[in-house]
Amino acid sequence: MKRGLSDGEVGQVSQVAQAIRAYSAEWAIRANGGYLAQACGTAELLALLHTQTLSLGDSSAPPKPPRFAATPRPGAPGIRGEEWLGNGPDLLVISPAHYASAHYATLAATGKLDPSALVQESTDGGLLEMIGAEHSPGMAVTSGSLGIALGVACGRALARRQQGIPGDVWVLISDGELQEGSTWEAFQLAAAHNLGNLRVVLDRNNMQVDGPMSTVMPIGDAVAKLAAFGLDVREHDAHDISGLYLSLEAMKESNGPAILVSNSEPWRGFSFLEARWATHKLHFVRLSPEEKSLLEEEVSLIWQQQ
Ligand SMILES: Cc1ncc(C[n+]2csc(CCOP(=O)(O)OP(=O)(O)O)c2C)c(N)n1
Ligand SMILES: [Mg+2]
């Protein structure tokens, strides 16, 4: 087991997490709405995955992405989104494609995207799709149709094992995806093949597009179900950097597929989201003029503290 993070390292991760919130908020301010709560719930998790947990290596993809040229395929122009992650050996798959904004913000906060490139987000002909696709920086799978990328990740983990390719396949999934049958089939497959190179992190924010998970379609005791499907399960507070780091490190010791349930507060970091959380409807937030100026103030505070 690795040692824990020093206070200095926790501080650095926290700075990256705050930058992720700020970059995502800037997009929401520009577009007068956005997938901001996803960044707020996963900021510490994404910061840890990118800077501490995974070995992503250096990226040779351009920090200022070119315009869209073609859907990535052999012989076609264009760059595969995962090339922005780095040259490995690990791979990170973001399954819920509406978390792309949080992930672009992470790439900007970790130096793999030029922050000025974020203005491309959701613009015609730009690579930074609002619902990320496999040509979008940092996105390995086109997964706007939810519940797909976990199965793809299982296939890639199995192929890596068969071909002796080192490195683990990490996948971020959402709790809404636990309401889909394909997710459970993928877990079942991961257990059947004992995929020890598959590591799943679940952002459990207790909401999906139509409101609280419990009223849209309750999924019961997720931790017990995941264990019953043969996964090595842990859960932790998504915003406690030191403990989350140790839980992620412990996953690396598993010989089979492992999952971390990251219990998040999708309002974390911005007061207008917290004020609205009673509704559990933060999936895509539009901003009132008052909320917009409050958010602008809180973003500028984050940058002052960097
Ligand atoms: C296969 C599929 N079914 C339905 C949808 C419509 N949809 C878009 S987002 C969403 C909710 C997903 O929940 P979660 O990922 O937990 O969202 P969040 O926590 O960000 O609100 C749904 C059902 C979809 N994109 N794909
Ligand atoms: Mg959710």
Structure explained in plain terms:
The protein has 306 residues and is of the alpha/beta class. It has one domain: Rossmann fold (3-Layer(aba) Sandwich), CATH 3.40.50. The strands form three sheets. It has a five-stranded parallel sheet with strand order 2-3-4-8-7, with helices on both faces. A two-stranded antiparallel sheet has the order 1-9. A two-stranded antiparallel ribbon has the order 5-6. Helix 8 links the parallel strand 7 and strand 8. Helix 2 crosses helix 8. The longest helix has 25 residues. The radius of gyration is 18 Å and the shape is globular. The two termini are 31 Å apart. The relative contact order is 0.16. The mean pLDDT is 97.
How do the helices and strands line up, and which of them pair or pack?
Elements: H1 7-31, E1 33-34, H2 37-53, E2 91-94, H3 100-109, H4 149-163, E3 169-174, H5 181-192, E4 198-204, E5 207-208, E6 211-212, H6 213-216, H7 222-228, E7 232-237, H8 241-251, E8 258-263, H9 271-276, E9 285-286, H10 289-305
Parallel strand pairs: 2-3, 3-4, 4-8, 7-8
Antiparallel strand pairs: 1-9, 5-6
Helix pairs in contact: 1-2, 1-3, 1-10, 2-3, 2-8
Magnesium ion (MG) binds next to strand 5.
